[in-house]
Amino acid sequence: MSFDPGPAAAALAALRASGGRIEMLPAAIAPRNEAEAAAVQRARAGQDRPAGFKIGATARRMQDYLGLEGPAAWFMEAAGLHPDRAILRFADFHRPGAECELAVRLSRDLPPGPCLPEQAREAVGEVMAAIEIVENRYGDLRVLGTPSLLAHQVFH
């Protein structure tokens, strides 16, 4: 049976817009694996090119906590990026936290799929400090399931 990412994308977008907590997607629309989770992310991005990409859960401890086999990647929406100083209301977030990050601006696109470290290094245009505001909108992660967590962009 083929997977339609549209219903899950719409449900997650509605929950994010309402500020709602994400407990569990109905089984009929929930992604079942990482490939379906990525399809939900693409559906959420729509026709717009993502404003950026995030790589997270790079530490084994976080991967174990989230039920991942390795690091996870996902899209970042333009509305969630603030290139300069930003004032954000604490009340707009669920259990927020701040993470110090490195942001990389590429000078050119990378080819789709895996690439060699040399290819990635040659594409880097700028490296800068960044702060990520993370929030935990989730109930029990074991109930939500890793694919749904990935589809919702893992705390971003």
Please provide a brief summary of the model.
The protein has 156 residues and is of the alpha+beta class.
Task: Compile the SSE list and pairings.
Layout: H1 6-18, H2 34-45, E1 52-56, H3 60-66, E2 72-76, E3 96-106, H4 117-123, E4 124-135, H5 141-144, H6 146-151
Antiparallel strand pairs: 1-2, 3-4
Helix pairs in contact: 1-2
Main traits of this protein?
two-stranded antiparallel ribbon, 156 residues
Question: In words, what does this structure look like?
Answer:
The structure is a single chain. The two termini are 30 Å apart. By secondary structure, this protein is of the alpha+beta class. It has helices spanning 6-18, 34-45, 60-66, 117-123, 141-144, 146-151; strands at 52-56, 72-76, 96-106, 124-135. 31% of the residues lie in helices and 21% in strands. The strands form 2 sheets. A two-stranded antiparallel ribbon has the order 1-2.
Biggest sheet, in brief?
A: 2 strands, antiparallel
Low-confidence stretches: none
What is the helix content? 25-40%
For the termini, the CA-CA separation is 30 Å
C-alpha Rg, in Å? 16 Å
Percent strand equals 15-25%
Report mean pLDDT, rounded to a whole number. 87
Helical segment count:
6
Global morphology:
globular
Order of helices and strands: HHEHEEHEHH
Strand order of the largest sheet: 1-2
- Based on secondary structure, the structural category is alpha+beta
Number of strands: 4
